[in-house]
Design brief:
Layout: H1 14-39, H2 50-53, E1 59-63, H3 70-77, E2 84-88, H4 89-92, H5 97-103, E3 106-109, H6 116-130, E4 132-136, H7 154-162, E5 165-169, E6 173-179, E7 182-185
Helix pairs in contact: 1-3
Length: 186
């Protein structure tokens, strides 16, 4: 199931979703100890997500992207909700990693403007299946950066199109008491 340019951006077949949901639950169980060990990770302000958890409306999560494991960290922060997340197409084209991140809910965003209709279809399917999508609206990972970079418009376009709530989530790297993995995200 390796991804190649031009392939479907999202899979919603029952077998794929069953494997994806099982993998997401397994990663959630293993993920907490891993991120606590590497980053001394904790979630602050989880109570602010209550409004998002008690809505029938779709949700567009908007987050900065400062660590390679942000999709894991942010996914853990919103547990038990399962979501999709956007990523650059090059990530999903990497051998082995590409299949893994697709099963975790990764939606590649192609650079080919001719595929804008495919992106629309993928976002519609993502909202229909899981009710939410994570956008890294800066468009790429700015490693360990704590400045919010200018956002791309996609998250806000789809929030309007889908009538979705916009829920901001921020990774803050705590400077004091660095862990083995560097600064600890909060």
């Amino acid at each position: 199931m390796p991804y190649r340019r031009g392939d479907l951006l999202i899979h919603t077949e029952p077998l794929f979703l069953a494997a994806s949901n099982a993998l997401l639950r397994l990663v959630a169980i293993a993920g907490w100890p891993l991120v606590r060990l590497l980053y001394r990770y904790s979630v602050l302000g989880r109570e602010n997500l209550a409004a998002a958890e008690n809505t029938e409306r779709p949700i567009i999560f908007v987050a900065n992207h400062s660590l390679p494991l942000d999709s894991l960290l942010h996914g853990l922060a919103i547990q038990p909700r399962l979501t999709w997340f956007t990523m650059i197409e090059a990530t999903v084209m990497a051998p082995y990693l590409g299949n893994f991140v697709r099963l975790l809910g990764g939606i590649p965003i192609p650079t080919d403007l001719a595929r804008l209709g495919d992106i629309d279809e993928a976002m519609d399917a993502a909202i229909k299946v899981r009710g939410s999508v994570f956008f890294y609206s800066e468009g790429e990972c700015f490693l360990l950066c704590q400045e919010i970079k200018p956002f791309k418009a996609g998250a806000f376009y789809y929030a309007i199109k889908e009538g979705a709530l916009i829920v901001p989530i921020v990774s803050v790297l705590k400077k004091e008491g660095k862990s083995r993995g560097g600064a600890a995200p909060r």
